[in-house]
Amino acid sequence: MALRNIIGQDKALRILLGTLKRNRVPSSVLLSGDSGIGKRLAAINYAKAINCLEPADFDCCDKCVSCRKIDSGTHPDVLVVTLDNVEEVLSLKEKTGKDKNRYEYPIEAVHKIEEMLYLSPYEGRKKIIIIDDADAMNINAANAFLKTLEEPPPDSLIILVSSSPDSLLDTIRSRCINVRFYPLPVDGCREVISKNIDSKNIDFVLNLAMGRPGLAVSRDFIKENEWFTGLLNNMIYEKSKDAWSDKGEIRAWLDMAFILLRDMAIYKITERQSDLISGNRQWAIGNNQKIKDILNSYQDMQQVRGLLDFNLNKSITWNYVASIIKNIFIKELC
Q: 32, 72, 92, 137: which has the fewest C-beta neighbours closer than 10 Å?
């Protein structure tokens, strides 16, 4: 795939291709936006375009030895670092620790990246390091990495990829060219996922993906909806005091709840049911539910989600969210 073939990110691609056309490739770039919308794919193809042996209109040819090596992860001058592969690709002695229920990049990872960046390119034009989930650096790693951004090695490019750019140090963000990515429109999202999703489930998956086709392809939304509905039952009928195993599950459940509340508000205005409403019809459709109550509940749960990184107690969070849910649906049970 060439950079220009990425679907639904025309503005971001114009910026990236513009740096190539003007021969003004920066030393550091931040690709930010929601998960599953093509940021890492764009980063890899940007690296291909920079080091391509036979570029076509400043984009990669996607056929030369350099492009094929980058795609396969074997190019000596291009390294993609993720939370899943960081220990392997950097040969870390220190294991990636867990902070607030997510893995993080330790300071040793930054030191290894610096060592690689200061080596001259072996066969490409630039030494390129792509760091996915860059916001997962611990504070020591982030501070150490700042020095690298302030004095980048020659012939190098650092590409940070983040779905939570606000979690990065302000000083890191200010030293990068920020290229923003956005959720795809429905047609673009459908085009991406239609090659990987059963046609009978496409509309349901599109509704849950919310313009993030990467999530639709990598996750089983059908199974996740069954899990969400089961916990919704537990909340409404008080069958459990706490059914979340960790904060990752709380985030995932709240994301599904936001979609259901969104669809309920749309139904109140248009009477158009989504598949998610149909699966939860016994609660989601009621004459006594007001849009104001639905929107207030949405806002209350958004505040909960924003506080998850502050080590909220799971049981207290469960009870609070359950009270919000029952405030909407209890009228249907009376």
A: 72
Distances (CA, A) of 216 to 162, 192, 238: 19, 9, 31
Residue ranges and CATH numbers for the domains of the chain are 3-180 (3.40.50.300), 220-333 (1.20.272)
| Other beta carbons within 10 Å of 241 | 11
**Coil, helix or strand for 331?**
helix
Q: Is 186 exposed, middle or buried (0-12, 13-18, 19+ CB in 10 A)?
A: middle
Q: Which helix (H) or strand (E) holds 62?
A: none
**Predicted model pTM:** 0.79
Per-residue burial over 11-44, b = 16 or more CB atoms within 10 Å of its CB, e = otherwise: ebbeebbebbeeeebebbbbbbbbebbbbbbbbb
Chain segment 261-280, per-residue pLDDT in tens:
888 888 777 767 666 655 55
Find the mean pLDDT for residues 49-64: 93
Residue with tokens 């690298």: 148
Which amino acid makes up residue 240?
A: S
User: Which region among 66-70, 117-121, 309-313 has the lowest average model confidence (pLDDT)?
Assistant: 309-313
Tell me the mean pLDDT in the region 218-231. Answer: 86
DSSP string, 301-319: HHHHHHTGGGT--HHHHHH
Maximum Cα–Cα distance across the chain: 71
